[in-house]
Amino acid sequence: MRDIFWTVVAVFATIILIPILLIQSCDIQKEPTKKIVESNKTVRVYINKTREIEKIDLEEYIKGVVSSEMPAAFNIEALKAQAIAARSYATARKDTYKEDGHPGHPGAELCDGVHCQAYKSKEDLKELKGKKWMEDYWPKIEKAVEETKGLVITYSGEPINQPLFHSTSGGKTENSEDVFSASVPYLRSVESPYEAKAPHCEDQQIVSIKTFVSKIKNRYKDCDIVEGNIKSDLKILERSTGGRILKIQVGNKILRGRDIRDIVGLRSANFKVRMGGGDLIFDTIGYGHGVGMSQWGANGMAERGSTFEEILKHYYVGVEIEKMK
Ligand SMILES: [Zn+2]
After folding, report:
1. What is the mean pLDDT of each run of 10 residues along the chain (325 residues)?
2. How far, in Å, from the CA of 112 to the mean position of ligand 1?
3. Are 101 and 44 contacting, i.e. CB atoms less than 8 angstroms apart?
4. How far is the centre of ligand 1, averaged over its atoms, from the C-alpha of 214 (Å)?
5. 55 alpha carbon to ligand 1 midpoint, in Å?
6. Most buried in the list 54, 86, 122, 234, measured by CB within 10 Å?
7. Structural domain boundaries enclosing 86
């Protein structure tokens, strides 16, 4: 009887268990191949907090960028446009810095700060935004990224390396050379008509004349602006197509609107300035540098039925949306 039992056990082991173990070991052997395939689609990201470089799957990285760069409550088509912009940037960076990484963070083509584009891992998002946000919005972010998988913005057949964006243009975006130094063919000034819901479309910031003068003098030691003479010492001389100030007279110096924006901490370089008591009152229009895609404008277009492709082709002039090679 005992012999029969052991015979049954032996037969069971031969017929059932060994094949199962073989199949499992085949699976284990297959795994490295899969990893090699995936590594072509990863990006190297320098994490500022840990000072370490992480290899992240490109599409997972894009999810972490969209979550960090655009309000998740925005329309899904706007989120898709943001995902494609982020993917284009990452792809262009990868192409340019594929060997040694970016000089600002050797070994990695990207970092997780605003130096490149803001990124947060799913775990960090969970901690930062909480359980409810993850339940309400993470699936939407995943959908926006997955439904645009592999798509990038191209100009002359290459992924664009400057898919710049900003919060709110204030009605019109800017030509790149009016804000930064280079003229980029797809970064042209265009109308951005649907920004009415943006919280800082029109805003007011007040700074005391005393603080303003001391901040200016701190930055420009040779500036002769004086508190008592501010009315004639401050004169707007020239504006860009989009409305931002190109030249402003400040005492004996001619500065750019963006210099004043930096020094005072204004939301935009598109402003009017007047005196009120001992203060300077800045009425600002828009939020951010104004070049490329306006995020609130993109959301406004999406709410009126525009697709991600229509949004991107509106804000980046002469581009195509194509599958990555
Ligand atoms: Zn960086």
Report:
1. 52 46 39 42 95 97 98 98 97 90 96 95 96 97 97 94 95 95 96 93 94 96 92 93 95 95 95 94 95 98 98 98 90
2. 7
3. yes
4. 33
5. 15
6. 86
7. 42-196+290-323
